[in-house]
Amino acid sequence: MAKHSVRGSTFPSVNKLVAASIFLWLHSTTASPSSPLYTPQLRAARSDEITAAVSVSSNTLASASYASKDYLVLDTNTTLSGGISVGLGDGGESNPPSTGYRAVAYFGNWDIYARNVQPTDVPTDLLTHVIYSFANVKKDTGEVILSDSYADTEKHYPTDSWDDKGNNAYGCVKQFYLLKQKHRNMKFLLSIGGWTYAHENKVFASIANPGWISTFAKTAVQLLKDMAFDGLDIDWEYPENTEQAAGYVKLLQAIRDEMEAYSQTLPEKPHFLLSVASPAGALNYELLDIMKMDQYLDMWNLMSYDYSGAWDKDSGFAGHSSTIFASQQNPKSTPFDSAKPLIYYLDKGIHPGKINLGMPLYGHSFMNTDGPGQKFQSVGKGSWEAGIYDYKVLPLPGAQVYKDESILASWSYDPQTREMISYDTPEIVEIKIEFIKANKLGGGMWWDASGDRPKDDPQSLIALVVKGLGGENGGDMEQIQNVLDYPESKYDNIKSGMKQQKGDGTTTTTTKTPTATAA
């Protein structure tokens, strides 16, 4: 590939990538490792121009101009000190996504218990997609099954009757169906797998077996029919070899075929959605046959978080858990970053609008440390598990908040307890919004909804992103209605659209969304 000079540095020609924009993340003269006051300058460019992330030495860049579609001219005498060339492209072969930004949040069925976050606490009026987590898989047969039938379909909320006639769905499934009726722009997907089932229990181990794939696809789509899902999400962490990667493609194809066949039986022939939770680590994404997967997918939910955490005790360095760029001043603080997987996916031909940038609603704790890139010895107590705090409780009392805008990272630090917590602050998220826009990504994704502040709190990250991407009236968000007609559901209330059959045979229609209560 041809290279072009840029004031002493070179960047590859990106004619094949058709890059989306140009980024210049510039370190200001006030920046230092101990005082992270980096000031980025962000200039968007046309879709036929190159993207570049460059680091600048102690001088601040005066100005920049774009001289051609495949290289960059810097109008300054500043000496470049390394940096990376980024080609964030429009993609080559990938089908373009629907128009409008997405706001996608995962919701765990366990959230209703100790966390006491119920479906009605989720800002479904703001979100375009809620991904309900997780369904399990029978390892030997491929049958997709519910992981918690009480949470999913049995729990009675205050407005649920015990006298309904027939076989009815309750629990989170009914609650989200009622929310779908109220907020027609919110799509409800079922996620299958997740870390515990996919990684620890290895439920995808038999994916090379065609019968296993067929059973998986049929039973997954049966859950979609029964429980009123608008689509399916596969969270496989992670294929371990090329044979499994090939099986992944066949699995997605089988699911897509089953969903299309079901769609053709419905009067409106809706398009059911298929997505994956996609890895951000090179050892995992380089195994995937990305373009073959992409032909069956509506979106990629990039897991651009968990870059550093308690598991780094062996290396011993506290790091940033959801940074966009790698740090050149403090490389031990960024073992992973989001730019590299984005470059990889887009270089393979994925349309940027199909990728949702993952953002955490929690923070990773590091104890007995002096900060990012420094040694740590243990982790903090956490909100629900050691080392992990919900975003809504951060920063902890006594902690000071810091940010490094050159890499898009933020954290808190308490000098008394020597605890660092890496998490996204509203200030950093506001810049990530601009990153999504400038690179024409599909939108934002969060793990998981239970960690955010209430939507009317000015510090709510979901509300902040939706306002930033969608505008004051939300008009720039994706506008696609959900599906309400599920005539083959085994649940009578879903089949009837929540026209409840009372024990005496009378019929009523549910119009009020229930109020959340403790489990």
TrEMBL record:
Sorted keywords for this record are: Carbohydrate metabolism, Chitin degradation, Glycosidase, Hydrolase, Polysaccharide degradation, Secreted, Signal
Region of interest called Disordered, as start-end residue ranges on this chain: 494-519
GO-annotated molecular function: chitin binding; endochitinase activity
UniProt signal peptide:
1-31
Checking SUPFAM superfamilies in the record gives: (Trans)glycosidases (SSF51445), Chitinase insertion domain (SSF54556)
The EC number of this protein is: 3.2.1.14
User: CDD domains, per this entry?
Assistant: GH18_chitinase
Keyword Signal carried by entry: yes
What GO terms fall under cellular component here?
A: extracellular region
Q: What is its main location?
A: secreted
Domain GH18 as annotated: residue spans? 101-472
Superkingdom classification of source? Eukaryota
Per its record, the protein catalyses: Random endo-hydrolysis of N-acetyl-beta-D-glucosaminide (1->4)-beta-linkages in chitin and chitodextrins
Family named by the database record: Belongs to the glycosyl hydrolase 18 family. Chitinase class V subfamily.
Supply the name of the protein: chitinase
